[in-house]
Amino acid sequence: FSFASNDEVSALLSIKESLVDPLNSLHDWKLDADHCNWTGIKCNADGMVENLDLSNKNLSVNLTTLNILDVSQNFFIGEFPLGFGKALKLASLNVSSNEFNGSIPVDIGNATSLEMLDLRGSFFEGSIPKSFGNLNKLKFLGLSGNNLTGKIPGELGKLSSLEYMILGYNEFDGEIPSEFGNLTSLKYLDLAVSNLGGEIPNELGNLKLLDTLFLYNNNFEGRIPSQIGNITSLQFLDFSDNILSGKIPDEMSLLKSLKLLNFMGNRLSGFVPSGIGNLPQLEVLELWNNSLSGPLPSNLGENSPLQWLDVSSNSLSGEIPVTLCSKGNLTKLILFNNAFSGPIPSSLSTCSSLVR
C-alpha cells in the first residue's frame, strides 16, 4: 500500500513499535537516518513515502503488549486488519483520516482496555458492531465521516465511562436508541447528518454532564423533549434542519450555560419562551424558517453577549426589542419575513459591532 502524512516518521516508528522483528530487519529505522533510506521504504521525488514493503521479513504483530497505536492522517487503504481483539492492553487506537473500507472488525469489541477508539474519516461500511458494548472503559468513540449504515446498536448504552461520542456524517437507519439515556458520563454527543429519524428520546434528559448536543440535519420529528431542560450543563444545542414540530419547551429557559441555540429549519410553532431572554451566556440564537408567532422576549440581548440572531421567515409580531445590542457584541441580525411592528430601535443605529 502507499501513504503520505504530515508526520511520516512518527507513523512509521509507531508501526515498528507494534511489530515483533526477530531478524532485526528494521534495524535502520532510526531517527538519525533519512527515513527514505529505511528498509522497505520507497519515497517519491518530493521525499514523501510512496511504498512500504515489509514482505519476507519474518515480522509479526505483538498485540499482547501493544498499548497505543496511532496511524492517523495517512492514506492506508483496504480493509482494516483483524486481530486487534487480542490486544488486551490496548488503551488507544487511532486510525482516523485514512482510506480504510469494508466492515469494522467485530473483534475490536474484545479489546476491553480501550479508552480511546477513533475510526473517523475513512470509508468503513456496514453496521457498528454490537460488540462495542463490551468496551466498558471507553471514554472516546469516534466513527463519524464514514459510510456506516444500519441501526445504531442499543448496546452502546452500556458504555458507562463514555465521555465523547461522535457518530455524525454517516447513513444510519432508525432512531436514537433510548439506551443512550444511560450514558451518564457523556459530555459530547454528535449525531449530525446521519439519516436518523423518529422522535428524540426523552431519556437524553438524563445526560446531566452533556455540554454539546448536535442532532442537526436528520429526519427527527415530533416535539422537542422538555427533558432537554434538565441538561443544565449544555452549552451548544443544535437541532436544526429536521422535521420537529410543536412548541419550543419553556424548559429551554433553564439552560443557563447555553451559548448556542439552533432550531432553524423545522416546523416549530407557538411563542418563543420569554425565559430565553434571561439566558446569561447566550451568543447565538437561530430560529429562522419555522412557524413561530408572537413577540420576541422583550429583554433579549440585555442579559447575554448576544452575537447572532436570525429569526427570519416566521410569523413573529410585536416590537423589535431595544436590548438586542445592549452588550455591544451583536454582529448578525436577520428579521425579515415576519410581522414586526413599531419603530426600528434607535439603539441599533449605534450598534457598531453590527455587520449584517
What does this protein structure show overall?
There is one protein chain. The chain is mostly beta strands. It has two domains: 1-62, no CATH class; 65-350, Ribonuclease Inhibitor (Leucine-rich repeat, LRR (right-handed beta-alpha superhelix), Alpha-Beta Horseshoe). It has one helix at residues 8-17, and strands at 19-20, 41-43, 49-52, 60-61, 68-70, 77-79, 92-94, 99-103, 116-118, 123-126, 140-142, 147-148, 164-166, 188-190, 197-199, 212-214, 219-222, 236-238, 243-247, 260-262, 267-270, 284-286, 291-294, 308-310, 315-318, 332-334, 339-340. Strands 5-7-9-11-13-14-16-18-20-22-24-26 form a twelve-stranded parallel sheet. The chain has a seven-stranded parallel sheet with strand order 15-17-19-21-23-25-27, with no helix packed on it. Strands 6-8-10-12 form a four-stranded parallel sheet, with no helix packed on it. The radius of gyration is 25 Å and the shape is elongated.
Strand element count: 27
Number of domains: 2
Tell me, what's the shape? elongated
What would you give as the CATH superfamily of the largest domain? Ribonuclease Inhibitor
Helix and strand content put the structural class at mainly beta
The helix content, as a percent range, equals under 10%
- Roughly how many Å apart are the termini? 50 Å
**Helix/strand order:** HEEEEEEEEEEEEEEEEEEEEEEEEEEE
- Rg estimate, integer Å: 25 Å
Instruction: Please mark out the parts with pLDDT under 50 across 5 or more consecutive residues, or reply none.
Output: 1-6
User: How is the biggest beta sheet arranged?
Assistant: 12 strands, parallel
Percent strand equals 15-25%
**CATH class call of the largest domain:** Alpha Beta
Whole-number average pLDDT? 92
Number of helices: 1
- CATH topology of the largest domain: the name is Leucine-rich repeat, LRR (right-handed beta-alpha superhelix)
Strand order of the largest sheet: 5-7-9-11-13-14-16-18-20-22-24-26
Subcellular location: Membrane
Domain Leucine-rich repeat-containing N-terminal plant-type: 5-44
Protein name: Leucine-rich repeat receptor-like protein kinase PXL2-like
Main location: membrane
